[in-house]
Design a protein that fits this description.
With 776 residues, this protein is α/β, with parallel strands linked by helices. It has 23 helices and 29 strands. The longest helix is centred in the middle third of the chain and has 32 residues.
Length: 776
């Protein structure tokens, strides 16, 4: 067996009771839509055919009319306007949207993005004072500001009107700003989940007085990169934005697509995995102004130069993340004691700690807080990521007094706190999470849309599923379940990190790729049905298209037998999992060729098996003296996995077993000679019959045990009037017969025969019947 890493949650959406026109929507798409809560033909049409007409009017935002009027007044009076943004992809694209809008309106405007390392997140007093010194009278925040209580007061004292546009979680107290444009602070605005760039876009529409389609490419980047739910307005904006991005004439985006090797239509994956991370990298390592310069550039040569700089920064970011992940990984202690992982170290780059936290969450299925220690300030500062079952924002708000600064949402947050509060933070969060969650809640869940068979999977099916794109939060790619025996499986990639397999059913072929699943290779036995869940897609290479399943998780639900027979040196360490029980069995003490970790219990075959419990994995290092011993042991321990590690130096099975005629000939020879001196006549017998010395000595010993002969000082003599006995009554004969049978079944059998023997052994609790050989 192989346990899955995640909890597989199969959809139980009922489709029969919903009557749609099957000519318009296929049964599969209907089923997938219902799983997304779309239960009418009208709602399905809106989802499958996003329409700009279904966007909500900006006037639904509280304060938007007031803010619009203030901006137009500032432009008319030639006041200086400052756009105050954030340093991530959402903030950078939001800044570009509003800055482009203000320039189109003829405003005297500029932008400012704080330095992550010297200023931290969001508006700050020094920046506002500098703005005042530069005669700025109106500041508009984008993708930030909703938690800036103090900074809003400072702006008011400086005589600056502050307009906040944001989408982050409002806290108990709102800033005293001139205007706040925020979906969650606007009772009349229906959709609450816009990204920062979505809010900025709505404000731009209000300012311009028309729908600015030319800004949708920027909206798509911020919306997808910020991982907001891709439903309702976000789905419409992302859908049209990707089309605009595919045909964009912005020099900066053309150059960025070039370094990302994006050609043709741009997908949500291109934004999420290529464009977004590169824009984020700039603000993570240095000043995010470079990213805004790229998006605002009007010269193609300049844009390409900046894009190459961005590419270089992203490569540096990847190296820094890799190094910190390794260090953080070594600092993670016992998971039994940690409901929430908290790691901190001086010198860690603040800009990448969110990525590091995400890595730890994926590996350990725990919320993770990763912090850098700032000794000169006696503070720690960093980022947190959570698991779906744990609302990080609300939990941290319960202990808000511990933080100097805190903000975020249920699954991600940024924070600064005194160094002395570090241990207390972990203790308090552990207390909260252990009160809220059970052990099962920590495991990741994966929503499985449907079980599917290999003949059903083809390119047409994949294209049909693309009707649901763009995929993202609240509209994930459908996950399909497949159970079949791989015809081929191997490790690929650097350090063999990935798993490549192929499934075959009659004339249908399906490739499977499991990224970062290469470590499971040794845990999959041959000819075993493998249950996998993953996303269907098209792999295009050198012009060839092949359907594949990108495997997210896998499991094996039946007992596995692993065949290591004949290996001179065998280390079972890679198979040992601390969360399961392991038992190694042998005749004698293990030798230096058998490597067994300390956590594995070792017993001999003559141990009292009544004292044994069931185990997860059983390792058999030597063959038993008979099959019944092994059968009883396996039935008692009922292992999920059996590793057969037998070595054989001197095979009984491969030696010719004396036949009945051989025994008759030797008996007749001794009878004729009355006595035979083996020391002298052994070579002659070996010559005459082409027998080995061992064979002759074995047959002689059988006669002796049956009391047919007497052997003294190497001389064999017949006993007078011996009793008639079966050859099986000889212990040596019986032992050799048993040993040959053991070797035949356990060592010389095919893998499939070995697997079936163990399967029958456990299933039936009965040994396969041995052939009875009669004597003379």
């Amino acid at each position: 067996m192989l346990q899955s890493k995640m909890n597989w949650k199969f959809s139980n959406a009922q489709t029969e009771s919903i009557d749609w026109d099957s000519n318009e929507i296929s049964p599969l798409i209907k089923e997938l839509l219902i799983q997304r809560g779309i239960t009418s033909a009208e709602a399905a049409k809106e989802f499958l055919s996003p329409d700009l007409e279904n966007l909500y009017h900006p006037q639904g935002f509280s304060d938007i009319s007031k803010a619009t009027e203030r901006v137009h007044k500032a432009i008319a009076n030639k006041e200086k306007i400052l756009v105050f943004g954030d340093y991530d992809a959402d903030g950078v694209s939001s800044t570009t949207v509003l800055l482009t809008t203000l320039q189109e309106l003829g405003a005297d405007c500029d932008y400012y993005i704080p330095n992550r390392f010297t200023e931290g997140y969001g508006p700050n007093e020094d920046a506002f004072k500098t703005a005042s010194d530069n005669e700025i009278s109106l500041i508009i925040t984008v993708d930030t500001g909703i938690a800036s209580i103090h900074e809003a007061t400072v702006a008011k004292q400086l005589g600056i009107d502050l307009v906040i546009t944001d989408h982050h979680e409002p806290q108990e107290q709102l800033p005293e700003a001139f205007a706040i444009i925020h979906p969650k602070c606007s009772p009349d605005y229906t959709f609450k989940e816009l990204a920062g760039v979505g809010v900025a876009f709505k404000f731009a529409e209000s300012l311009l007085g028309y729908f600015p389609k030319h800004l949708l490419d920027l909206v798509a980047i911020g919306t997808i990169a910020d991982l907001v739910p891709l439903k309702s307005e976000n789905r419409i904006l992302a859908s049209y934005g990707l089309k605009t991005l595919s045909a964009t004439n912005r020099p900066g985006l053309i150059a960025l697509k070039k370094v990302c090797n994006i050609n043709g239509d741009v997908s949500e994956e291109d934004v999420g995995f290529l464009i977004g991370p590169r824009l984020n990298a700039v603000g993570r390592l240095q000043d995010a102004n470079l990213a805004v310069q790229l998006l605002m550039s009007e010269d193609q040569d300049e844009a390409e130069h900046i894009a190459e700089m961005v590419q270089s920064i992203n490569q540096e970011r990847q190296k820094i993340v890799s190094d910190i992940v390794k260090e953080a990984d070594q600092m993670v202690g016992s998971l039994e004691e940690q409901g929430v992982i908290v790691v901190a170290k001086e010198g860690w780059n603040q800009g990448v700690l969110g990525i590091v936290a995400s890595n730890l969450v994926r590996k350990y299925d725990r919320p993770a807080i990763v912090l850098t220690i700032l000794p000169e300030k006696e503070q720690v500062k960093g980022s947190a990521r959570s698991i779906p079952a744990f609302d990080l924002f609300s939990s941290c708000m319960e202990i808000r007094d511990m933080f100097t600064h805190f903000g975020g949402h249920s699954q991600a947050a940024g924070m600064t706190l005194p160094l002395e509060n570090l241990q207390l933070l972990q203790a308090e969060l552990n207390k909260i999470i252990n009160q809220q969650l059970t052990k099962e809640d920590f495991s990741q869940e994966i929503e499985v849309s449907k079980t599917i068979a290999i003949p059903e999977i083809n390119e047409e099916l994949v294209n049909e599923i693309r009707q649901l794109a763009p995929f993202g939060m609240d509209n994930p790619k459908p996950i399909f379940h497949l159970n079949d025996i791989p015809s081929d499986i191997r490790q690929i990639g650097n350090m063999k990190k990935h798993l490549k397999m192929q499934f075959k059913h009659e004339n249908h072929l399906l490739d499977g790729i499991g990224f970062s699943l290469g470590g499971l290779y040794d845990h999959i036995s041959p000819q075993t049905p493998l249950s996998v869940v993953g996303e269907l897609g098209i792999n295009e290479w050198n012009g060839n298209k092949k359907v594949q399943i990108v495997i997210r998780d896998m499991k094996i639900e039946e007992r596995q037998v692993f065949d290591h027979r004949g290996k001179k040196r065998f280390d079972i360490t890679p198979y040992v999992n601390n969360n399961t029980s392991h038992l190694a069995v042998h005749h004698t003490l293990l030798n230096e060729n058998s490597i067994v970790p300390d956590e594995v219990t070792c017993i001999r075959y003559d141990a009292d098996i009544s004292l044994l419990d069931e185990v997860s994995t059983l390792y058999l290092f030597e063959m038993p003296t008979n099959l019944t011993i092994l059968q009883d042991l396996v039935c008692k321990t009922n292992p999920s996995n059996i590793h057969v590690c037998f070595q054989l130096e001197d095979s009984v099975f491969m030696k010719a077993f004396p036949s009945r005629e051989d025994f008759k000939w030797l008996y007749a020879f001794v009878a004729k000679r009355k006595q035979v001196n083996l020391q002298k006549e052994l070579p002659m017998i070996m010559d005459a019959k082409a027998w080995t010395k061992d064979r002759i000595l074995f047959m002689s010993n059988v006669f002796f045990e049956l009391e047919f002969v007497n052997i003294e000082n190497g001389i064999i003599q017949l006993n007078t009037d011996p009793m008639k006995k079966d050859l099986l009554e000889s212990p040596s004969y019986q032992e050799r017969l048993n040993q040959a049978e053991v070797e035949k079944i356990l060592y010389y059998s095919t893998y499939e025969e070995l697997r079936m023997w163990f399967s029958n052994c456990i299933k039936d609790g009965e040994m396969p019947k041995e052939e009875v050989t009669h004597g003379l």
